[in-house]
Design brief:
The complex is a heterodimer of chains A (about 425) and B (about 260). Chain A contains 18 helices and nine strands. Chain A is of the alpha/beta class and about 425 residues long. Chain A starts with 10 loop residues before the first helix and ends with a strand. About 0% of the residues of chain A have low confidence. Helix content of chain B is about 40%, strand content about 25%. The chains are: A alpha/beta (about 425), B alpha/beta (about 260). Chains A and B meet through strand 8, helix 18 and strand 9 of A and strand 5, helix 2 and strand 8 of B. The structure holds iron/sulfur cluster (SF4).
């Protein structure tokens, strides 16, 4: 009988860090203590922090709505004003919440509503939806909307790509300075980029602990603990947080503490999380003794190109070189490399209905991986809209995949290994 | 006391039980509509299987449950997915490499089985009635025939009709158009079964030996001909195809 699951202790600190982050935003939006910029999750946050903005990320809000399982009741409100149920369910959940005047930020962090933006800043490196999403709020709040249109999808990153994006980043500065009421200080930008890089490195090391057998962290833990890497990159709070988390995970490795006690199967999560089912899926995996040890999703906030000596150019590189913005060939090579490095037994693709941009099973990749001897499973679902998700089908698929892997791996456990009644 | 093993397959449409003896020979079976009281359906299936075997509950050494409602089987000693159980049950009848196509009431699966009888990979259909029994149930209503009659009608078809959509709702509308156009019910019935087969073939390229299991082939035996005629496949159907999942579970119980 494997030991019971041990909670990650840093979670308490994570709560504190996230509460402090939202408190700053609250003070800016509700008490006039600073300006609020909205930013897409892989947008140019460093420039915004360097200009002194409080930076709010609607995608984080979308994930909160999904995790709170509110999306299914909010999405119809967005549908009714013309936003299709087939487009990003972060967008439709968030706009639906706005239309209905609801937000989990009230209860969780004491905000009266979502914070009113002073400016909206996007980068289309992940998808077009973010631009359309922010355009809605531009009309609602009548505030400036600026952004970067990234070439998509890029093969090997060429200098032309970098120049094009760098020039766009530069052109953001003036309108943003106007809203901020201050000039961008290059020294400050370098400092922020340095902190962002440090955060990114630490977050990368946190995720790489998953390569250890057994893994001290699962994909589901990663989805919770990535918060600061998304919303506070460029701030020292994120750096400090990941030092704490990393120390704990390294301690776990030393003490043999596994995220999934008795880990026997190591899996790769490809695609978006299913926010409303993180806990259920995590528990299912624990019962199957299968651990998602690596994911492209959590890795998306590792920006190893960031370089304070060349702040804008390195931002252009980092934000254009994202997994989601790459060609199929590069994505496949990337996944194969991680499968090897993390000693993964199988890759699970979440074909998220409303995020075709990050559903990487649609152009034959699972078959190509399977052809190369890497077992794959694809299941249909969604990041937020649980009406597009079937608990029974996903459970059966995952269980059957684990049965398949334990069988084909020829593990001693193969015999009589079914799920016994406790 | 006898040495018996029980497999129970709680599907979305029906619940099945198979009882085997120590030599892995089936000695009794039971089937019920799953309905709303799964616990009761499983109890009744077990009782029916025991009665057929002339045995008592104490004779059951071990029971394995499978199917979407497997948790409802209070007397189960363990669980296996229907993927593994269909593979195992089909392999029992046809030992060797094969592709098992299990078409059920709400979903369908294509399972590759290796020479040792283990499933090597599988595909499940998407969350949609297309390619499942639910599609046939719904569209048969538009033909004003009970769905069990579709196979019989299709066998008398003389013309191939290809339906334009796989959406159950769109197909229902399309059927009305076909009727208005004067197409024969027999040909439309064949078209409906052919649509199910076409959805399956889209899930995975099929080759080699294909074994059809599940409730739909049990009620629509002509589907075998369709797979053979339309897709040029070599198709085998085991006896009692709707009990293959339960048989597989019973075989696991006997391990
Ligand atoms: S990448 Fe996907 S989930 Fe993210 S904003 Fe775009 S469509 Fe939505």
């Amino acid at each position: 009988m494997p030991a019971a699951r041990v909670e990650i202790k840093a979670s308490a600190e994570l709560k504190r860090v996230m509460a402090a982050y939202y408190e700053e935003i609250r003070q800016a939006a509700e008490e006039g203590k600073g300006k609020v910029a909205w930013c897409t999750s892989v947008g140019p946050a460093e420039i915004l922090y360097a200009l002194g903005f409080r930076v709010y990320f609607p995608e984080n809000h979308g994930a909160m709505l999904g995790a709170a399982r509110l999306s299914s009741s909010l999405i119809p409100a967005a549908n009714s004003i013309g936003y299709s149920p087939d487009i990003c369910s972060y967008l439709t959940s968030d706009i639906g919440a706005y239309l209905k005047g609801e937000t989990p930020l009230k209860k969780a962090y004491g905000l009266k509503s979502i914070p009113r933006p002073d400016v909206l800043v996007y980068n289309t490196n992940q998808c077009r939806d973010v631009q359309d999403w922010f355009s809605f709020y531009q009309r609602e709040f009548n505030v400036p909307l600026v952004g970067v249109s990234t070439p998509h999808p890029v093969p090997e990153l060429g200098e032309a790509h970098v120049r094009a994006v760098e020039a766009q980043l530069e052109s953001l500065i003036e309108p943003l300075e106007k809203v901020a009421g201050t000039k961008l200080d290059t020294a400050e930008l370098r400092k922020v980029v340095a902190l962002s890089r440090e955060c990114s490195d630490l977050w990368g090391r946190v995720l790489r602990t998953g390569a250890h057998i057994p893994s001290p962290i699962s994909f589901f833990d990663g989805c919770i603990h990535m918060g600061p890497a998304v919303v506070l990159r460029g701030r020292k709070e994120a750096v400090e947080y990941y030092k704490i988390l990393l120390a704990e995970l390294e301690g776990r490795i030393k003490d043999g503490v596994a995220a999934v006690p008795g880990e026997r199967i190591r899996l790769y999560w490809e695609g978006m999380p299913v926010w409303g089912r993180l806990r259920d899926l995590s528990e299912l995996c624990i019962s199957l003794r299968a651990c998602f040890v690596v994911s492209t999703y959590c890795n998306s906030w590792i920006f190893d190109e960031l370089d304070p000596s060349r702040p804008l150019e390195s931002m252009a590189r980092a934000y254009t070189k994202l997994f989601i913005n790459r060609t199929e060939q590069i994505k496949e090579a990337y996944i194969r490399e991680l499968v090897r490095e993390f000693k993964v037994h199988g890759v699970v693709f979440h074909d998220s209905k409303t995020c075709p941009n990050n559903a990487n099973s649609r152009y034959g990749m699972p078959r190509r991986l399977a052809g190369a001897g890497i077992p794959t499973l694809t299941f249909n679902g969604d990041l937020c809209d649980l009406r597009l998700y079937s608990d029974a089908q996903v459970r059966t698929s995952l269980e059957a995949f684990v049965e398949q892997l334990t069988g084909s791996a020829g593990a001693q456990e193969a015999k009589g290994r079914g799920q016994e009644r406790p | 006391m006898r040495e018996l093993y029980l497999g129970v397959d709680v599907g979305s449409w029906s619940t099945k039980a198979v009882l085997i003896d120590g030599q892995r020979r089936p000695v009794g079976k039971g089937i019920r509509r799953s309905g709303v009281d799964l616990a009761r359906a499983t109890e009744e299936c077990r009782a029916e299987a025991l009665a057929a075997a002339g045995a008592r509950a104490e004779d059951i050494r071990r029971a394995i449950a499978t199917g979407f409602g497997r948790d409802a089987v209070a007397f189960a000693n363990g669980f296996r997915t229907e993927i593994s159980c269909h593979a195992r049950g089909a392999f029992h009848h046809f030992p060797g490499e094969m592709t098992v196509v299990d078409i059920g009431g709400q979903d369908s699966k294509v399972i590759r089985v290796g020479a040792q009888g283990r499933h090597m990979s599988f595909r499940m259909n998407r969350k949609c009635a297309a390619g499942t029994g639910a599609f046939l149930e719904e569209t048969a209503i538009k033909l004003s025939v009970p769905s069990e009659k579709l196979s019989e009608l299709a066998a008398r078809s003389t013309k191939r009709i290809q339906l334009g959509s796989f959406c159950t709702v769109f197909t229902s509308t399309e059927i009305l158009g076909l009727i208005r156009r004067g197409e024969r019910v027999e040909d439309i019935a064949r078209g409906l079964l052919a649509s199910v087969a076409a959805r399956i073939v889209e899930m995975e390229p099929l080759s080699g030996t294909v074994v059809l299991t599940g409730g739909v082939i049990a009620h629509q035996p002509f589907l075998k001909e369709i797979f053979e005629q339309d897709h040029g496949l070599r198709v085998l159907v085991p006896p009692d195809p709707q009990f293959i999942g339960a048989l597989g579970a019973a075989l696991y119980a006997a391990d």
